[in-house]
Amino acid sequence: MPNGDEREQVWITGIGLISSLGVGIDEHWNKLHGETPPRPVIDEGRFAPYTVHPMPEIDVAQQIPRTSDQRQMDRWQKFGVYAAGLALQDAGIAGNDALLDKTDLCIAAGNGERDIALDSRILATADADADAAPRLNTELMTGLRPTLYLVQLSNLLAGNISIIHKATGSSRTFKGEEMAGVSAIKNAVDRIKAGQGDLFLVGGALNAEREDFLLGCELTGSLYRGPHQSVWDRQGENDGFIPGSVGLFLVLESSSHAKARGAMPYAQIGGIASDRSPRAPGDIAATASTLLKELPLDTSNRELFVMSGASGVRATTAEELQFLSDVQKAGIEPVIRAWGSIFGHTHEAHFLVGIALAALALSKSEFYPPFDTSGVEHTRKTWADQILVTTFGHWRGEGLGLVQSVW
Amino acid sequence: MSNDNLDHKGRPLVAVTGRGVVTSLGIGKSDNWMKLTAGQSGIKPIQRFDTRGLKTTIAGTVDHFDIEPYSAFDLSTAMAEAAAAEAIEEARIGSRSSFPGPLIIATPPSELEWPHLRRLYNALPDSEISGYARLLASARSGKHADLARHVRFAAIAERLKDRFSTRGEPLSICTACASGATTIQLGLEAIRRGDTEAALCVGTDATVHPEGLIRFSLLSALSTGNDAPQKASKPFSKRRDGFVIAEGAGAVVLESLSAAKARGAPILGIVRGCGEKADSFHRTRSNPDGAAMIGAIRKTLDDAGVTPEQIDYVNAHGTSTPENDRMEYLSLKAVLGDHLANTPVSSNKSMIGHTLIAAGSVEAVFSLLTIETGILPPTINYDEPDPDLPLDVVPNTSRSKSVSTVLSNSFGFGGQNVCVVFSGEPA
Description:
The complex is a heterodimer of chains A (407) and B (427).
Chain A: E1 10-19, E2 22-23, H1 25-32, E3 43-47, E4 50-52, H2 67-71, H3 75-90, H4 97-101, E5 104-108, H5 116-123, H6 132-143, H7 149-152, H8 156-165, E6 170-175, H9 178-193, E7 199-206, H10 211-219, E8 246-254, H11 255-260, E9 267-275, H12 283-292, E10 303-308, H13 314-329, E11 333-338, H14 340-343, H15 350-364, E12 386-392, E13 398-404
Parallel strand pairs in A: 5-6, 5-7, 10-11, 10-12
Antiparallel strand pairs in A: 1-2, 1-8, 1-9, 3-4, 7-8, 9-13, 12-13
Helix pairs in contact in A: 3-8, 12-13
Chain B: E1 14-23, E2 26-27, H1 29-37, E3 44-45, E4 58-59, H2 72-91, E5 103-106, H3 114-122, H4 131-140, H5 148-151, H6 155-164, E6 171-173, H7 179-193, E7 198-205, H8 210-218, E8 248-256, H9 257-262, E9 269-276, H10 291-304, E10 313-315, H11 322-336, E11 345-346, H12 349-352, H13 359-373, E12 375-376, E13 399-400, E14 405-412, E15 416-423
């Protein structure tokens, strides 16, 4: 390590979260903790036969005051910019120009919003005649709104965060479905540990309530159809994920930087480990076991607290259970909570939602009740000071994170 | 590690040991460099699709691959593979099937194109439902799984990882038109951290399809010089009227200098430093004060440990839009000061157009070839200089000049500004 200080810790000093459950971490904590499983918020009608977890009405002007900015953004960007604003406020950075000027952005993004009405209108016209191609050109030239591309481009969530919140240190957008979130936070953690930056805004957003997004998911054969079930209950013929709208941002900070400005941490990142296995049968479980060895797990604990990013896609979900069963056989009892049963599958943001929920629980010195009644998730016997976060991509990539108490 | 292998801040020096490139001029360094230094243009009327009804009908398409039917995914992947294979071969690193480091790749948008939407729609010809409900019904049949590659954001990275067996999780990057430079920055940082001894950094973009072109046209970003395609891209000229959309791919193999020397690899240049600064002004325009571009250049020079006077040549972003070229000049002037008058600044885009996501990768390869050969590629179509941008743009014909340090600029939508300094010799 040429520059880094091995003793430097990576602290989570801000969280901004909006989802189908509500706005802000307090509302989420109130709904998620306690004795009984929280109830997911679902919409089974609007996109039938698909179910989604919808975003409630949010007052975007709270974080995006100018209507001219709002007009240039689509929902995924509004969700992300809103959550980023909450995270910056939570960390005490919002409005602090000197800190925002050096805040580095690591964003996980997909997107590609389309104009559904325009596409539908064009598709409804014939396309077999000789003038079909120029007609399409003219339809697009006159029908596409000029700013549509600025909601399609993956890096324009980052761009909007820079414009609206003035966070402008550097800006990198990572793609690749679930692994985008793993890549984004891993890059921030690696850079903090090596002294390549000390203040990061890390996050992502998903608007699941889009037919064009659902079309992409259905082409990959990974969408669940039918009434809501927990991720562990979707292992029969009808497997797949249920998408959930979300905006999630974290402020990550080197411990020395946070201490110098008196910022308090929720928790620290013990480590992030990732790989991309070839995905032959057994590869996911074997890769996860190897990755677990890279993390500073306290093996003296009797229980391993796990925030699981399981999606409900059959092969991946089954291998995650195999991996956790292997942990159990090694003598540590996994205490599992799959947030996808409550939030839905949140794609690029998914891993980061799990990291946030783990940090929140550690900061409260509590853990969550089982998120479903499948029997996979059972009550804890000990207290958590480390929480493993898993996310195995629905078609590629394996990611693990360890979140632990600072004290 | 000996001091010879460390930079001014005590970090491992990072060498370039392999380069590969594809543009509208050709496949490979040799063909590209010969044409680029001869001032040849790769811009031509679009043949790939019917352009009737469009304001812009020219582009720098890559037509050297047998990809039929065209799709952005298939052509972008083919170009990326060709560029990466060339870079790996030059670096003589690993084996054909095992690259000893991660893949970091910048890729274009992942999306269904109109032929794909049409195929899904027409697959249910007698359907009474319309719009996306019909597309979804068609997708549910399971007969169109081959289209998944177009909508998966990491699908190009997956192909390359499998082809070259790179290590670990490949990174897929988008920082708009700075993406190629971002891949080099990520590779540089990873090697400096000691996370890896090598990285394969690639940028690729083949998005000349009707909607791909129209969305830039609607942002008034494209030149409409359709009558004389090869004259349309005219960076820093008075009558510049937009960029010419183009396709290409670039790849570099980065290695710690110590590892490269240890295995006797060719040292083709040093990545001296990278810098980055985001703009908070506007989604498609820079703050008129140039603070972000200036910040990016300053941070780059600081990271590289070079003074403005040590910059021998600037490989400009030089898109040929009124806005970019003016802001780039102002920013260079602010940082290089009087030295700018003695510093040649040329734009490869005058010949190959704007390769968008790939631009930083393609232009990195050309920057390194400039250092190797001592030939500055020209800015062609510089017939009427913009008097407000007094630059030595290496007008119209290439020039011989010994160059040891190059600044390469990349600026993108969303306020992305990334610069890289390459040099020939270790500091």
